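Task card 7
Instruction: Convert sequence to structure tokens.
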Amino acid sequence: MYKRILLKLSGEALGEKGWLFDHEKILEVAGILKEIRDGGTQVGVVIGAGNLWRGRHGLSSGMDAVRADMMGMLGTVMNCVMMQDAMAQHGCLSKVFSALYMPDVCDKYRRDLADEALERDGVAFFGGGLGNPFFTTDTAVVLRAVELGADALLLAKNIDGVYTADPNKDETAELIPVITYREAYQRGLKVMDLAAFTICADQGLPVVRVFGLDDPRNILRVIAGENLGTILHP
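Output:
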């Protein structure tokens, strides 16, 4: 059993048809986080903002790239606060940290405070990305996983693993069950960005599991050791 994991949730997977909030699904995911905590595993959560904002939408309309990324960072904090509320509805305390300074909303991220929150409450949410433009939430969750000594990083996406090509566009695409970080990057597989891959490889993050969030209980199945999706490793 893992002592501590980092979980990346797709914002789109928490939205209704990919947008805004699917409250029923959000409550279901919060209930699963409670199960994980009650089972003795601490879980830190990073959530994307694809259900609220995509920086490329702003760029395509001529928006400044830094402002577009700032909006995305704010979107991740909104999703974290939403999930914190869902946890409260299940009777669970959790803490939200942000890489952006937002004292009236949540605490500023600090490794020691995040570590204490995970030890105390079992669940913590990390928003605001890295607080700087041009870095994705992939990089943020990998960095948090390394900083906080996670045993594994789980990437719950709106696609059920890593494929040889985009399965939504290429019907011949095949699921890749196991692959190393460097091979995945060298093959140009769209799992994480270069910065995230580099941190995983250089710091020897033990394992990354990529799987679909179509059924939120897949999170529990992966933690239990089922061979869902794709396993990435050093």
